[in-house]
Amino acid sequence: MAWIDRLKNGLKRTRSGLTESIGQVLGHGGKIGAAELEEIEEILIAGDVGAGVAMELVEELAELVRHSCPSGEELISTLKKGIKERLSGCERSLALRNDGKTTVILVTGVNGSGKTTTIAKLAAHLHDRDPSLPITMAAADTFRAAAIEQLGVWAERVGADLVKHRIGADPSAVVFDALEHTRRLGGLLFIDTAGRLQTKHNLMEELRKVERTVEKRLGRKSDERLLVLDATTGQNGISQASHFHEAINLTGIILTKVDGTAKGGVVLPIWEELKLPLMYIGVGESKEDLHEFSADQFVEALFST
Ligand SMILES: Nc1nc2c(ncn2[C@@H]2O[C@H](COP(=O)(O)OP(=O)(O)O)[C@@H](O)[C@H]2O)c(=O)[nH]1
Ligand SMILES: [Mg+2]
């Protein structure tokens, strides 16, 4: 299945909750008045686009209605344009080094958000693109034995090297060894981290320590510090993100499980509030379900019929 069809499929729930409801309000052929506009605002808010953005988008529709007698189609295209405008600038590709040094990609996020499987998918994509690229994975989620094993299985499938210690080991020590391993090898290093410790404070401290290890060893920060965000957590994810951002100064977001929610509109407040690039979007469990985010594709798929 082509990516665009997977994306459409993945956005099914958001489309039926958000887009189709709006279509019903706008498409009935009658006059669009205050009641209809208010209804649309409520639908947008329910789809997690955020109250501020919902109000602005509806204001643009109101403006159009004041000056002309637009068709439902015109109103929808105004809405699409408004959403695309607000997402503009949010896309960015993974920054791979081209100086022969290892590209270090630190992957963070709460438990179950999809860190480990996303690393596996990204590694598979990058391996497909350049099979000669050495890929290493560091099992810095030492909190659970299963986490180390899971990463090991993925590493083997992709043909990546795995650097691991025992359960309970210091994640920074794993990272130290992984940096040593990749020093001569170059290529890519994915650092898989824990999403849950005894407290949020401990988790953030641990991530800072991992980052300090990279800085000490390489004399620079990790090249990417990504947050894997589960779309089903909706707006809560944004406050989560700001904690991670505070701790390690994130460079980008990967939004997973968009297929599991009707609140895919959350991409708007993520970008509006965090101003962190939305790099990849995940709409399912297979490798093909993860793809670079495109605002244009996203909006078109969202409003497709
Ligand atoms: N439906 C769906 N499931 C996903 C997606 N991304 C990850 N998952 C699933 O989420 C679960 C937790 O993923 P995992 O990588 O172990 O999370 P971690 O705890 O952050 O490492 C796994 O069953 C993944 O297959 C996605 O985009 N859509
Ligand atoms: Mg994991």
Written description of the protein model:
By secondary structure, the chain is an alpha/beta fold. Helices cover 53% and strands 13% of the residues. It contains twelve helices and eight strands. An eight-stranded mixed beta sheet has the order 3-2-4-1-5-6-7-8, sandwiched between helices. Strand 7 (278-282) and strand 8 form a beta hairpin. Helix 1 (3-10) packs across helix 12 and helix 8 (171-185) packs parallel to helix 9. It is elongated and about 65 Å long. It starts with a helix and ends with a helix. The mean pLDDT is 95.
Structural class label:
alpha/beta
Number of strands: 8
Q: Give the helices and strands as they follow along the chain.
A: HHHHHEHEHEHEHEHEHEEH
* Helix share, percent: 40-55%
Task: Tell me the number of helical segments per DSSP (H or I, 4 or more residues long).
Answer: 12
- Shape by Cα distribution: elongated
Rg estimate, integer Å: 21 Å
Bound chemical compounds: guanosine-5'-diphosphate, magnesium ion
Strand order of the largest sheet: 3-2-4-1-5-6-7-8
